[in-house]
Amino acid sequence: MKAKTADLTVGSLPKQILFFSLPLIASNLLQVLFHMSDLAVVGTFSAAGSAALGSVGSTATLIHLFNGFLMGLGCGVNVLVANYFGADNREQLRKTVHTALFICAAIGLAVLAVGVLFARNLLELLNTKEDLIEGAILYMRIYFLGMPALALYNFGNAVFSAVGNTKRPLVYLFSSGILNVLLNLLFVIGFQMDVAGVAWASVISQYLSAALILGALFHSKDVYGLHLSELCPDLVSAKQILSIGLPAGLQNAIFQIANLFIQTGVNSFDTVMVEGNSAAANADSLVYDAMAAFYTACSSFIGQNFGAGKRERILKSYFISLGYSFGIAAVMGGALILFGTEFLSLFTRDSAVVDAGMKRLLIMALSYPFSAFMDNSIAASRGLGKTAVPTVIVILGSCVFRVVWIYTVFAYFHTIPSLYLLYIFSWTLTAVAEILYFAHLYRKQFSKREIAL
Length: 453
Description:
mainly alpha
């Protein structure tokens, strides 16, 4: 079966990037809705109410940390497949795809083991409230059973996105998303399973999406399709995937490691504030993941055009992706300011929790667009095959800076505004460095090519 692919090295870039990104936006938002539906159903229909919401919400930072790591690993697959597809290097493309399957599966299993074995330790490290921690441990241990499936879905999504087909993963994710919502309602309302119910619904849905996307790759007749006869890991390909994927994964995880300190800061307030933060934090995932679609587009377009040697389309892809990501963040942030109370009411009926959530939501809604300059520049460098230096910059500009902020500015004022203003300051600092590095890398990479020619 031939699947639709797209040559990203020719055509109108504004139109191509937009239509490439729209299915990715829908796919990313559906993944967020998996977790959001857990919160909405358990917070609204569970007998435990806000306590169940707080338990599930207390795991959000850890779940995003490991999810982000797996998504970063997929970025390594995406960049290499895009490069080889753009250069029409069929042999290396096949080796990369088949090797990546093994790597993603193995790392997914490793993440499962970490989550199940160390759930209590990690949650205690975050100073999770005593009245929330047992429910949080239960949710986390069940949810992490689905991590291998998530790793495999991200692998398949990365391959399809790299060759310009972003619609097929969307169809599979939509199918599993519908199942997730139905199972949430069945397990929580019908079987009164509360936290365990929404966790099992997520796990089952993740395995469905993984099965569908792997089935499509095994049935594909295209050069990037999977074949049982070629399922033999290639050492050179493995090193290439890990050299890009691991730094990208660590880069995503570093943001969440810094957020662990922020979660500790949130936990220093009362339970109502913790629950309000859990509800408001859902907006972060919605906005970030909508913006992330344009970052994937940036990497994919730059990757293919770099492989094809089309220099002029690289910078255009960078600026167009930046404009789109900034714009969608501004629109979504504005909508959250106008309809924040209604948004938070999806997760809780407690007016005090809603009021607490708005304190975070208003600050973050105004800050989201500025993260585009940082993340889009990181994606551009990744498209040129470099992730190590951007990762170091992120460690310094986001992780180290945020920790310092927590123990200085926040420690002095100890207010919610003083906690969440650190985002815009750290994004701005990191963005300046990432932009300068991409500009340097762009000149360097093409100077090498010109010398070689």
